[in-house]
Each structure stands twice: as C-alpha cells, then as structure tokens.
Amino acid sequence: MSIDHQSPMPIVIVGHVDHGKSTLVGRMLHDTGSLPDGKVEEVRKACERRGVAMEWSFLLDAFQAERDQAITIDTTQIWFKTPYRPYVIIDAPGHREFLKNMVSGASQADAAILVVDAKEGLQEQTKRHAYLLSLLGMRQVAIAVNKMDAVNYDDAIFAKVSSEVDAYLKSINVTATYIVPISAREGDMISTHSNKMPWYKGKTLTEILDSFEVDSSPLTRALRFPIQDVYRFEEKRILVGRVETGTLNKGDKLLFSPTNEEATVTSIESWPEDDARVIAQAGESIGITLDQPIFVERGHIGSHFKNPPMLSNVFRANIFWLAKKPLKVGNTYKIRLATHEARVTIQSIETVIDTDDLKRDETPTEVGKNAVAQITFRASDMLPLDPYTDNARMGRVVVYDGYDIAGGGLINMDGYPDQRKEAPKSDNIFMVDHQVSRDLRTKLKGHTGGIFWFTGLSGSGKSTLAMAVEEELAKRGFHSYVLDGDNVRHGLNSDLGFSPEDRAENIRRIGEVAALMADAGLIVISAFISPYRADRARARAAKPALFNEIYVQADLATCERRDPKGLYKKARDGQIKQFTGIDAPYEAPENPEIIIDTTDNDVQTCVKQILDYIGTKVSAENGTDGANKEKSFTTVRSLSA
Amino acid sequence: MNAHLKALEAKSIYIIREAYNSVDPMAMLWSIGKDSTALLWLVRKAFFGRIPFPMVLLDTGMELPEVYAFRDQIIKDWGLDCINHMCPPEEEMDQTLPPSTRAAMRKTEGLKSLLEEHKFKGLILGIRRDEQSMRAKERVFSTRSADGSWNFKDQPPEFWDQYKTDFPEGCHVRIHPLLQWTELDIWEYTKAQNIPCVPLYFARDGKRYRSLGEKNITFPVDSNASNIDEIIAELKTTKTSERSGRTMDKETESSFETLRQRGYM
C-alpha cells in the first residue's frame, strides 16, 4: 500500500510542563518537511516582535492566551509524514489542571512519546502522565530524554535519567519500548543521527515511530455490534451502528444483550450502492435488517451466540476522575458502555491511587479530581460487559456527572460471574399443583417451614452456628436441616468448580433445593459464603415468603486469624486463586433480616440471637391438637436462656 | 475506495448518527464549498439516501455567482430542504474590527439570528482540524453558550468516541464530523465518490480558488490544477496553506482567534 493510502498513526506526546513537548512537535514538523511555506518565517517574526529567541513551540500554540502563559492549553492535532507512513500527533498539555485534555488526546493514540528533561528528570507530571498511559492501556511507549544540549550531550546523565524513568515505568507495568536522547531545539536524533552523541547507537525518534505497529486487534476479537439507532424507512427497519470488533455477515444469527433477543441478519444496507454487501468488519458504520421484528433499541449489543458479552449488574473498573466534584460511595451516575447507557450507583471505592507518588489509599471515602481509583459499580438492570483484557474497545466505561464526561476507565470482571440466564430449555414445562396443602404439611410437622440463609466471609462462623442452631432446634422437636458448603459440593454440586460462573450456579442450585425443602415444611439453614448479592437475590426469589437473610458478620482480620481450614493462608500464598475477601469480592448484604456479629459475641450468644429470630418467623401449628403446643418458641426461648 | 478513506467515512457517519440520535431540532451548515458538500454526501450515506434535517446557507449575498448556481443545482438534484438565511449587513458589525474580520463577523451574527429564529439545539459543521490551528483544538461535540461564544480554555473531556450530548437550556452544540479529515482527504473522497463541486476550485488562467468564501474577502491562488487529479497532485507537494486566499486570517496575529471566540464557524 502506498503511504498516501494509509490512515495516519495517532501518536501522543506527553510529559511534564516545559520539558519540551511542543518544541519537539515543531521540530518534527520541520525536519520531516511537513510545514507549509512561510510558517517558520511567520513564527520567527512573531518571536522577534516579542523580543524572544525562535520558539518552535509557537508553531502549535495558536492561541494568544497560550503564548502569553507559555503553556499548551488544549489538545492539538498535527499531521506529518515520514517516508514510511503518515502520522497525526496529538500534542497533550503538560500543565496539571489540563489533565482532561491529556486524556482526551492520549485515549486516541496508538503509541506515546514521553518527553523527559535531561536536567530535571522524572517530575510530578511525568509520573502522572505515565500512569495515565498505563491506565489507558498504552502498549507502545518511547521515552525521549530531551534537552541533551543543555547537559553537554553527556551519556552519563542520559544513563541516569533513563534508568530512573525506566524503573518508574516498570513499577506501573508500562514497558518503555525505546529510550532515545534528543535535543528538540537543536534537532539532534529527531530524524537524523547526531554526531554530538556518538555513544548512542540506537534508532532516531522518527525511526522509532516508524517501528511502532498499528493496532489491528479489533478485527480479531468476537463480534460486538452496539446498536446506535433504529431507523424506520417505509417498510424497512434498519438497525444502525458501528461494528466495534469482529466480523458480521449477512445470514448471521445474532444474540442481543442484555435482552437475550435473537434474530438473523437478512441484509447489510448500503447507499448509493445496491444491496450486494455480505460482510462488515470492525470499524465500519453499517445498517442491517433482521428477519424477526424483535425488540431492539439503542444500547443493545449484537453478538454471535459464541462469545457474547457477559451480563452482570455489578462490575469493577479502574477509573480516572476528571471532575471537580468528587466521586462518592452511594452516588448515582450515568455511564456509557459503547452505546449502552445506564444509571449506576457507586457500591464501593476499593483503592484510590495518588498519581504523583503512587501511594495507595486502601480505605478511601471519595475520589477527588485527577485521582485514579478502583471502583465497584452496581446497576439495577443487567449490563452487557466485556473485560478490558478480552476486548480493549468494548471493555471501557465512561462516567458522566451532570452534562459532562467526568471520568472513564477500564472494566475488570475478575471474580464476577456471568449472570446471563440460559434461554428456557423447553416450552413444554407445566407446573403441577400438589394435593397436599401447606396447612396439612404444617399440621404434620407441627410448625411452618422457612429458609435461613447465612452469608458471610469464610471463617465468620456460619457452619459452627448453623450446626449449633440445628442441634438446638432438634432438641426442641423442630425439623431442620443444614445445607453446608462442603457437603453439597460432594454430591449435588460435585460437577462445579470455583470459577465465578460455577460459584453462581452452586448457589443457584442450593437456593432451589432450599426452596423445595422449606416448601416441604423443613426449617432450612444454609451456610455458604454466597458472596454475590445477585445470587442471594435469586435464592430469595425462589421462595420469597420463607426466605431470611442472616448476615454472619466478622471483619476480614478476625476471619483470617481464625482460618479454620487454613484457606486464607493458602490464598495469601497464592495457592488458591479468587478467594473471597482476598482477590474475589464479598458483597455484604444491604438489608439483611438480621446481622449476627461474631467478632464480639461468643457462639452461645449468637445461637440464642438466631433462635430468637427463627422464633419470630416460624410459627408452631396452632391447631386443636394440644400435644403440639409444646413446640412453641416461647418454650424454646426459655430453654435457650 | 482505499482503507484510509473508508475509516474516515465510517467515523464521520458514526458522529452524524450520534448527533441525529441525541440532538433535536438540528440542522447542518452547508456553505456549498468542498468540505460541507462532502459532509452532505456523508449525511446521505448515514441515512441511506435521506436527509433527515435541513441544510442552512448563511447567506451574505456576497458569494460568487458560480456558488449560487451550484447551490440551486444541488437543491434541485438532491431534493434538499435548504434554509437560505440572510446575514445582517456589515454596518451592524463591530466597527473596531479590521475590515475582513468585520465582513466575516456577518456570518457569526447570521448564525445567532438563525438559532434564535429556528431554535436549533445543534448544528453540524464541516470544519477540519488541519485548516487552521484554532480549529485544531476543537472537540467533535462542542457546546456553545447562548450567545454562541466558545470557552476554549475549559472544554470538557472527550474520549473513546463518547460525546457530550446533554447540555443546559439555552446552549447549542456544534458537531464536527470532519475534524480529523485533511484537505487532501476531502479531495480524494470527492473523487472516489464522484461528489459534485463548484467549478471555481479548478484552475483557469493559472488561478484557482482553494477555499471558497465571500467574494470581497477571498481570492484565487496561483495554480494550474484544472481537475481533481491535478488538485490531488498539487496538494501532495504544496506547502502553501489552504486558507492563504482568505484575507481575514492575516489581518492580525489573532483575528481568527477573535472570530472563533465570538462564535465563528
């Protein structure tokens, strides 16, 4: 392909204020012959009028205000080309308060040049920009150690600055692809090798740019076709949007998320050409028609049946926050995932990272302007989600506060299960009514049934309490049964592992079994970590009238100290992955029926609290049979005291 | 059509559709030049041959006759709903401005009266980042306050193709689907798609218009490029700036900046 027919590679240039970014851009334009005639003269004259030396950066700093302050205010885009290919440079500002412009610029780039002053080395803004490059997922980074002319082209200084910067980048998981000594002002090592630095044998800056690769990954990922709009023209209903990743073919059967609707592509529309199109690839803005009049609207994500997006109402993201108003737990925001818009509430802020010194705050209360944080978001409805590591284009979220974009980040689904429900297996399922009534069962058992769902961290005391409560209930003639984690996993759920999906299925089955047993008249006590709210909500939904959520609460430190099965130690040693509380989330109940604090109370006290609570929920049979009156919880209360 | 033009086209169509989805009522400024005519073509592509919002010409009465003739032909051929909005006279402009800048201000004022009259919440414009360094700093979705002014020092962030589509009452948004196109891209696309253009762009007697504006403030530049292929060849080697025939850019170091801040396109 000839150079004229390539899309320019977007490059971002970042670094601390006054380290010479704009100067570098001005110089690259000049050295590659990309400036219009008279432009350099124009700037030279402007500099003379101001009585200052020739400033290459004035080529870019078009605004009067910027010249007066001598800082770049906004993101500029400048085109140039080397003999190898065209580029568009996004010149990002160095001044701290303009971070949002830096993000606006850097998010579009395929590669970055981090400019560092040879004299000043690593500065606050260098660190912040580098950290944001890591957060934006930038993989191709060149470090340009600038102003080598000001340090007499000293290789020792270059080596010192290089190792300092390289070490910092490594600490934030950014790999510097190249490190090059340059002088933007003098034009050394920009596009020609400099005889002032014979000790440097590597590539010039433009040679480095030419060696970077254009990101082609969207083509190779699973199909994602976010619906942008639906147009109705006469008889036709056209779904429009951009194929973000993968390939869409005429005749493909599509699954839409989060609705689980499905239909087949009957045409890929085009104008003014005829309708001979049969394929559309990542990056193309298209329109399609479907064979079924299914419900589809903006925000629904089309995919194939194989590798659809995950569905979840909760997700984590590493975000940067750019708004003046801090992000806080409990606040509700509008988010966008491609074209999918939703309102979400901040469930928790796990960590906030100061981008200056990379200090982590593990007990943050809010995320301030220009901070970076790991956040857990919760929505009331299912969201179509792709982890960033699986799909870089889809795996990102933008957060709005009021009218403006306030932040954005990369989605991380580690530890969260896919909540997509399987489509019904058969249409021929009919519920059959029992001939034995609830009242009759209660009469036979002598009491009503119920589900007492213990949830809490490993080591919080769920099993201990469950077994003790079961024993006490049996003593009093109540029919109860404990469903316990390990026991169930040996039988009913022996086919399940510990992936987020399997854990969700484990809890789903237990919820259904508990509902059946409670229906049969038993007092069911379940003792599972059951870390996800969504799973517990599903268990409750299986038998809402009889369900009671009991939060067995102990702080992580206490649980870890108890560590009855030695699991925390193994998790800390990395022998167990995705262990709840360590590297997988525990979502505490929002409104449990009762909280049992096992940190400060002994087993006996806790058992009594639970029995008292069960007493308020399970009523003894109140029939005429006086013999069963003995099984009243009034008696239980007096016995347990 | 080559991959680069395809990518530009897809991105612009995406932006046009985002605008149509979120802004109502909306119009597009059609200056009848090469950029906004290519943009009009993209609109037709985005909506499969339809044009679901009106075109607006901010008319100063000072366009060249060939421009008016082209306008009338396209309106007829493409069945356009076109609002020909007359700009206020030059006497009403700020008399302290240099003459060409003052003349250009007429369009700014015309734009204001257009918004007042039609209550448009959004306008699609065919400006490009490579035209002029002031325009290089634009966002794709750029909110303007009620008087049309642009607070370039405090623009909201814009990334990952997510745009600011909500804004307070009284503001309007300018949508710029061609920001990332270059002059050369426009001509290559015009050629590839066989889009009509005003014949003034083609050289006659050693001169051609590289950029079309009002006849009192725009002049042809030296060129022998008499068809699109020759224009493309010329642009690949030229180092003359596109707006070199526009006098208002040159009056003072900051006249274009002044115009843009006050609401110019």
Descriptive account of the structure:
The complex is a heterodimer of chains A (641) and B (265). Chain A is built from 17 helices and 28 strands. Chain A has 641 residues and is α/β, with parallel strands linked by helices. Chain A folds into four domains: 209 residues, P-loop containing nucleotide triphosphate hydrolases (Rossmann fold, 3-Layer(aba) Sandwich), CATH 3.40.50.300; 86 residues, Translation factors (Elongation Factor Tu (Ef-tu), domain 3); 100 residues, Translation factors (Elongation Factor Tu (Ef-tu), domain 3), CATH 2.40.30.10; 203 residues, P-loop containing nucleotide triphosphate hydrolases (Rossmann fold, 3-Layer(aba) Sandwich), CATH 3.40.50.300. Chain A has a six-stranded mixed β-sheet, sandwiched between helices. In chain A, α6 links the parallel β5 and β6. In chain A, α10 crosses α16, α12 runs parallel beside α13 and α16 runs antiparallel to α17. Chain A starts with 8 loop residues before the first strand and ends with a helix. With 265 residues, chain B is of the alpha/beta class. Chain B has one domain: Rossmann fold (3-Layer(aba) Sandwich), CATH 3.40.50. In chain B, 37% of the residues lie in helices and 11% in strands. Chain B is built from eight helices and eight strands, in the order αβαβαβαβαββαββαα. In chain B, β1, α2 and β2 form a beta-alpha-beta unit. The radius of gyration of chain B is 18 Å and the shape is globular. Chain B starts with a helix and ends with a helix. The mean pLDDT of chain B is 88. At the A-B interface, β2, α4, β7, β8 and β22 of A face α1, α2 and α5 of B.
